[in-house]
What we know:
Layout: H1 11-31, E1 42-43, E2 59-61, E3 64-68, E4 71-74, E5 77-80
Amino acid sequence: xxxxxxxxxxxxxxxxxxxxxxxxxxxxxxxxxxxxxxxxxxxxxxxxxxxxxxxxxxxxxxxxxxxxxxxxxxxxxxxxxxxx
Length: 84
């Protein structure tokens, strides 16, 4: 699991910043001869309950679109976008 933290005052800037960080991650993985299975790669944006936000961002790794999810199961624990 990888976590990126960003302030999202400007949604377009957040999208560009995250994609730059993903490019750095892919470079690091390639240098260390590691693979990332993009088919099982998803992203989730955590927000507070006070914000009613619907993000429309395109995150890509090697020109392949990463799908966004509202919740994920990790080691038997379900984590949702509001951390409830």
